[in-house]
Design goal:
The relative contact order is 0.12. Helix 8 crosses helix 9. The chain folds into two domains: 294 residues, Electron Transport, Fmn-binding Protein, Chain A (Pnp Oxidase, Chain A), CATH 2.30.110; 122 residues, UbiD C-terminal domain-like, CATH 3.40.1670. The longest helix is centred in the middle third of the chain and has 22 residues. Strands 5, 6, 7, 8, 9, 10, 11, 14 and 17 form a nine-stranded antiparallel β-sheet that branches. It has a five-stranded mixed β-sheet with strand order 19-20-21-25-22. The protein is an alpha+beta fold.
Length: 477
Amino acid sequence: MASKDLRTFIRELHQKRPDELKLVSQQVDPRLELTAIAEKSSQDGRYPGVFFTNVKGSSIPLVINLTATYERLALALGTSVQELVKAYGERQGHPVAPKITQEAPVHDVVLQGKEVDLYALPIPHHNETDSNFYVTSGVLICKDPESGRTNAGMYRHQVQARDQLGVWFYESHHGGVIWRRYEALGKPMEVAIAIGHHPAFALAAISRLPGIGGEFEEAGALLGEPLELTKARTVDLLVPARAEIVLEGVLYPRQRHREGPFGEWPGYTVEEGEKPCIKITTITMRKDALYYTIFPANEEHRVIGALPRMGSIYRRVREAIPGLVNVNVPAHARTHCYISIKKYQDSDVKKAAMTAILTEPENLRFVVVVDDDINVFNEREVMWAIGTRFNADKDLLMVKDWSGPGGLNPTGWEYHPDGSRTPIMSTVMLLDATMPLPPRQYPPLSRPPKELVERVDAARVLRDFDPSLLKVNLDSH
């Protein structure tokens, strides 16, 4: 059986959920037209994966929105949406070592020297206010000069020339930490950027893992098999053997280039300035490569970014308290986190909430802890718990100056009348929407018996409405 990669996932998706894939064969311009079509196809809230077979200026087909729903990510991990976060968090604790192989489809084609041309790839200009074309799905692989450990992370990469990419690191990104170490040593940093692999590999690269490295092992845990790696051609790094495309290159000390602005996951076009840049020395790819792009500032960006954070929060909170039930970081509001627990002591609430913001310090602004009878994936239930179990004068904790300053969220900035802005620290709200523990008594819930509800077969009982079966004349008299 073939090892899992982007193609095995596409085949499985086509077999099991064929209505979630669409194809566009007419020529499209990668500058805004491509994403306009993808946006139009998503306006009914279904977000199908869209394949473009004829992208202007490139011979390589492209797919977008492939990982835009939790249902498809659940399929990728072989689980259900309801069990998705739990499965992710539990697999994190059981890493699977990668496997080195000489059989590397990603080395079918090797381009070097004057053959290196990023403009020959169907890299899109995604949103109107983006500064340029951007590689949004690239997983940057590098090696820490202190520990020797390999790190993989997903960052935004601006196309700046036929052989140059920009890169934007958060201060806390491990890739940024490693880069600053190389620059302090006055040494160049070798990198490889892998584009197009199984969704499990992308998810592992986004995960919040403690310390530098571990993403290859987590990818194996999520795949359920070792990730196949092979030696890169011109840099001293291991890369996914079954990736679609790999860009090899070098970051040189003290070299900067203007980067941004770019549409980020909160839905705003933010962040620009002098950033590190990568000199691309080699492009390797499959002989019939497929380009995979993530639609930034859109549902796909938020969904694929939210699940790894949920899994990481789940694992850390479970280590802190025994009664964790589930975690949800809603894709439409990735600054929110809903945690359900079986509360054994009142301090469990604060421990759960504080662990969540320690795991995800840059992005979370609003954490709600609810009882185990609340489905955190049903926002109506979460809001009901806030309305009926939360009392602001005693159940609200505000942690001031927690995240920032600045960052991708507009709330990390103060805006001035002259059009300028200054970075500021942001506050996090922690809400306790749980019922008090015994012996204090809370009013009983008003619902039908749970066992009767569970026995109802809605598909058989609820029929399409037929007024003739009512035996009541609905006509006006």
